[in-house]
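Re-run requested by the PI after the first attempt was lost when the workstation crashed. Everything re-entered from the original request form. Ligand of interest: pyridoxal-5'-phosphate.
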Amino acid sequence: MSKIPLVDLAAAHAEVAEEVEAGFKRVIADTAFVGGAEVAAFEAEYAGFTGVPHVVGVANGTDALELALRAVGVGPGGEVVLPANTFVATAEAVARAGARTVLVDCDPQTYLIDTAAALAAITPATRALAPVHLYGQLAPVEALRAGTDLPIVEDGAQSQGATRHGRQAGTGGIVATSFYPGKNLGAYGDAGAVASADAGLARTVRTLASHGGLAKYMHELIGMNSRLDGLQAVVLRAKLARLARANAARRAAAARYDTLLAGLDVVRPVTLAGNEHVWHLYVVRIPGDGTPARRDEVLGRLNAAGIGAGIHYPYPVHLTPAFAGLGYGRGAFPHAERAATEILSLPIYPQITPAQQERVVTELATALR
Ligand SMILES: *Cc1c(COP(=O)(O)O)cnc(C)c1O
C-alpha cells in the first residue's frame, strides 16, 4: 500500500515547476539574490491578495512575529498575551523581543484563543495581544478589539487566504505570517512576511529587518537581518497565483472528511460562524481519559499503516521545558492541556484525492477498534 503523507510538497511543486525554473533563471541572470524585483513584485501581489496594503517580506515567520511585536512597541518589561496552544514560535518571538509571555487557555471547540481570558489577562505591563489563527481559521479578533485599545499582532502563519466576515487577517491592524514550505503558501526554504494596514508600522518593520536602516549605512535603529530573497519570491509568486484554488481544494477535502467521519467515535473540527476556513490542518479529537495513551495508540496504528497523521501540538507552550520558567504548571490551562492529549491531524493538502481520504478514514476506523 502506498503511503499518504501529511502534506505532499512534491505534488505542489509539480504544478509550478516550469514557472519556478524560469523564475530562478531570471533571478540568477539578474543576480538579485536578496530583495530585488521579484521580492517587490511578490509584496505587491500579496497585498493585493490579502487586502492588507503594506507587506514586508522577511526571512521566516518567527522573525515576522518578532518584528511586528517590536514595531508596535513590545520590548523589555512588557507583556504579551497569547494562547497556550500554539506552535512555540509565537512565544519565542515574544521572548526574543525581550518581553514576557502571558498565556491564556483556548476555546474547547475551535481551539482558538479564549478572548475573554485574554482580556482578563491584561495588566498595566501588557503591550500587545497575539492571537493565533490556528489550523487555518481566523480567531475572533473583533472580540479583543472590543475590549482593549492595545495593539493586536495576529499570528497568521497557518491562515493565508482565510477570512472572517469576508476579510483576511491583518485588515485594520498587523499580521505576521510564515511561508515555511508546509504552510498553505509555502516557499522552498524559510520565508515570512509582515502585513499591515499602517504604513508607518510597515516602515518600522522594514527598517528593523534591514539592519535598522532603509538607506545603506544609515542605521536608525538596532535592527536585525531578516529579508526575503529573490528565489523564494519566485516560488511564492507562482504559488500565490494558485492559492485561492488550492484553498478551495482544501475546503472540498475537509468537507469530504466531515462526511466520511460521520459514524466514527471522533470529534470533527468546528468552524467558527463567520469564518471561511483554509484547512491548513484537519484536526480531529480521539476522546481519551486525560492521558494521551489512546490517541497515541491510534496515531501509531495509522503511521504503521502508512498514513502520515500527526499532532499539532503535543505540548502546550507552558508544558515545554523551554517555557517552564514562566511558572505555569500542569492544570493552568485545562482546555489546551486536554486537547493536547486528544488531537490528531489527518493528511490534508490541495491534491489529496477522494480515494486517499477514504483510505485514511478506513485505516482510522480500524485503528479505533
Ligand atoms: C509556522 C508557524 C510559525 C513560525 O514560522 P517559521 O517560518 O517556521 O518561523 C509561527 N506561528 C505559527 C502558528 C506557525 O504555525
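Saved to the shared folder this time. Residues 243-368 form a domain with the Aspartate Aminotransferase, domain 1 fold (CATH 3.90.1150.10).
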